[in-house]
């Protein structure tokens, strides 16, 4: 069993809104409708392209290849047929503004669609030594590689293609740190692979203490020698301190979450140049009060506090910490929102599954929003300084559509084959896969901020 305990724990989630709606929802129905619409649209557009065949090679058009044959895509396509090309072309197909161009600021990059792109994925897991065995789905026997082929396309603008060299150059002599739970780790490993794709000598990328990537507690710091930059991960599933209960606590209190104290790991990451936080999956009854972990503020253990209130307090603590203790003139701060799970027909413990989902959900988004995301937005908007220093990456809706991207049966490590049907992981994500898209957004937001910073500096020098 290659699967970590943390991975198993994370899957026992019961309190989430999205998947409930998803249960009664046949993902293919809306998809077929949309497919029909797209087919008609592209046949129409295809007439135009017919006169200039070269145009078909533009990005965004490969739908023609997918649907033009008149049959739905074969779900058993060989995964390794996926070829990584090194295209550095700008994406502008439809005359949309580039997000990094002037006027791109007003674009809501979280509002968009998943589009098929033959140039994806950005890397192959077998070329990247920095992926946990549990995330190597194709190597672990997943037969379909479609989930690696979707690119996120905002409605209002185009994103530049991820350029690892450019990112590394910007990160030269700097530190990028991810702080959060194992979904944050998922994203961190994705970033390592995306950046490592530009470095032929993978030996020049190493954990500074020699710790293996399989270490699931504490922290891991990978250094890219050629750029003197580090890409770091700190495990802090609640972001606040979890510790033993104070002396004299009521009976049944085994541990507490100290809602007014940011994780002790802050001593290590506070001065990094880019911080990417996430939390959410561990704020469940089962993982807290259900096994004797209550909430504490000051020295007081609050036996009656509900989880959502506790979550709100912890986010307030995070915001206050960032505003008062992080030098946000230097450090860019991001919070990546909750990534929905997609268990059907049960939970992790009761045989919930997602392995049959091979395509994104193109249907409407659920009516209900995710409570944890609402709470985060609310706490964020309470003070304008918070909105200035904290970049809220609301990836929840886009990620909700990616029911096809989970590790499902394919998290038992290369050579072990698919796991049992009743033991699926519909929380974590295959790599390459969905977390790459979060990182592509992080990339453009980071570059945007950098250019603003640069402009400020130039202006200061002129004045
Ligand atoms: C390497 O990067 C660190 C920050 O991560 C910085 O403090 C240090 O000065 C850099 N070293 C050189 C030689 O630039
Ligand atoms: C507290 O911990 C003890 C020992 O680990 C365990 O036996 C007990 O069930 C726990 N209490 C609760 C409420 O889970
Ligand atoms: C950050 O920049 C502002 C404005 O340029 C300045 O007033 C403030 O002192 C700076 N803070 C730190 C910690 O350098
Ligand atoms: C969505 O929510 C609105 C307002 O709460 C309600 O009027 C509408 O019926 C809901 N739609 C569905 C499909 O549940």
Automatic annotation (TrEMBL):
Q: How does it sit in the membrane?
A: Single-pass membrane protein
Where does the Trichome birefringence-like C-terminal domain lie? 159-443
Domain Trichome birefringence-like N-terminal, by residue range, is 106-158
Q: Which domain of life is it from?
A: Eukaryota
Annotated signal peptide: none
| Cited Pfam families | PC-Esterase, PMR5N
List the subcellular locations.
Membrane
Membrane-spanning intervals of the chain: 31-51
Q: Which UniProt keywords apply?
A: Membrane, Signal-anchor, Transmembrane, Transmembrane helix
Q: Which PANTHER family match?
A: PROTEIN TRICHOME BIREFRINGENCE-LIKE 11, PROTEIN TRICHOME BIREFRINGENCE-LIKE 9-RELATED
Homology family: Belongs to the PC-esterase family. TBL subfamily.
Spell out the protein name for this chain.
Answer: Trichome birefringence-like N-terminal domain-containing protein
Organism expressing this protein natively: Rubroshorea leprosula
